[in-house]
Amino acid sequence: MAAKENLDELYKRFLRNECNPAEISRLSELFDAADYQVLQEMVRQQLDDPSATIPFRSSNQYRYDRIFRNLKEHTKPSRPVRSLWANISAAAGLILLVASGGYFWYQKVSPKPVLALHQVHKDVKPGGNRAYLTLSDGREINLSGMKSGRIGSDGGNDILQAVNGEISYVDGQAVTEQGPAALNTLRTPNGGHYRVILPDGTKVWLNAASQLRYPANFEGLQQRKIDLTGEAYFEVAKDPHHPFVVQTDDQQIRVLGTHFNVNAYHDNGGSKTTLLEGSIHARGKQAEVTLVPGQQVSTVAKGRLKVDPADQEIAVAWKNDQFMFESEPISILMKTLARWYDVEVVYGKDVPDIRFNGAVSRFENISEVLKILESTGKIHFQIDGRKVRVIKQ
Q1: What SS3 state is found at 10?
Q2: Domain boundaries, position 336
Q3: For the residues of 62-112, what is the DSSP string, one character each?
Q4: Number of independent structural domains in the chain
Q5: At what angle do helices 84-91 and 36-48 cross, to 10 degrees?
Q6: 59, 62, 64, 70 alpha-carbon torsion, rounded to 10°
Q7: Which end of the chain is more exposed for a tag (fewer CB within 10 A), N or C?
Q8: 170 by DSSP, 3-state: which?
Q9: Which pLDDT score, from 0 to 100, does residue 336 have?
């Protein structure tokens, strides 16, 4: 009983980020020795906690059931497995980000142990707050090289940079003449992400290898129109008189005030817009639809639009500093890793077309993520500088 109470207390301290390195090591030992049912109940309590980052919801019961089934399979004594420390982080993967990362599993779980990377010459660190801001006069500002505070002005607004990787626009010198809107461009490279608070108060999270083009001042404009390439998450400030419009290559999303995610990478086969809150109207070249929360609209062949139920946690996992995949093909998964780690991915012959489910922190070095993917026993990875080779086992 004392051991159980000690486990409970350390677990709660860990969730509050109060554990020192010795306590984290002790907690890992306790997880390894704990009964599976005890671990399941601890995770369930966290998922049920309304104060959790992403609390458990009955609509996601199928996912947690599957995670627990995999956890149970991987705790059988007859099978060589990774530490339960990694397993428990997977079971609560929507809540916990632990030092050892997350846990991936293959749909047909292999009985083979986790494999070491075949070759690592130099590890690759994760991306971070990196972006470039181009003002209406063409001047480009490297935001990762700027100190916090005022970094410039445009369209009558001052531009401020915070220490947490975010820029915002505040009232500055009044514009005496109403001319063409001053357009700014926020661009993130591979290995970068950034946040911006637009002049109307709309918050935008910009993923790696993305670009956002927007007015530096919305005053006098009938609509708040911006252009997006790549991926961004929006929390749009409500303004019933001035619609907010997001334009991609193949979709136009029109809202008054809501939360949604747009994935519009050119190499992903078409834009995908996922609605989390409120309502949006999406228009393609051949159709238009209105979404309700929990739906996703995708652009398919010939500009048609397809509406499907959305997995909201997966859609915004990147914003919450996680990789999260649901039956993701290796080709798409590696594109995601390539953008975030700024690496080139090359494929050997006869690489199997396998799919992955799971979650892992985006703050891990790439070798740690690839080791987890190698646990399928189907593929190997070789890292050489900023090149990752995918080869059949």
Answers
A1: helix
A2: 119-124+321-392
A3: HHHHHHHHHHHHTT-TTS----HHHHHHHHTTTT---TT--EEEESS--SS
A4: 3
A5: 30
A6: -170
A7: N
A8: strand
A9: 96
What would the pLDDT profile of 198-251 be if each residue is shown by its tens digit? Answer: 999 999 999 999 999 999 999 989 999 999 999 999 999 999 999 999 999 999
Cα–Cα distance list, 149 to 134, 143, 331 (Å): 17, 11, 41
Q: Nearest Cα to 157, choosing from 138, 143, 171, 137? A: 171
Half-sphere exposure of 132 (CA within 13 A, CB side): 11
Tokens of 38: 């005890």
Q: How many CB atoms lie within 10 A of CB 166?
A: 18
Residue type, 80: P
% of residues, the chain, pLDDT over 90: 52
Whether 231 and 210 have beta carbons less than 8 Å apart is answered as yes
Residues in the chain: 393
Q: What are phi and psi of 199, to 5 degrees?
A: -55, -25
Q: What is the mean pLDDT of the chain?
A: 79
pTM to 2 decimals?
0.73
CA distance 299 to 335: 19
Which two three-digit tokens encode residue 303?
A: 């500009």
DSSP 232-268: EEEEPPP-TTS-EEEE-SS-EEEESS-EEEEEE-GGG
Q: How confident is the model at residue 40 (pLDDT cuts 50, 70, 90)?
A: low
Q: 342 and 283, same structural domain?
A: no
- Can you tell me the mean pLDDT for 349-360? 87
Strand-strand pairing, 103-106 and 203-206: unpaired
Amino acid at 136: S
Claim to verify: residue 282 and residue 332 sit in the same structural domain: no
Q: Is 314 exposed, middle or buried (0-12, 13-18, 19+ CB in 10 A)?
A: buried
> What is the CATH classification number for the domain harbouring 384?
3.55.50.30
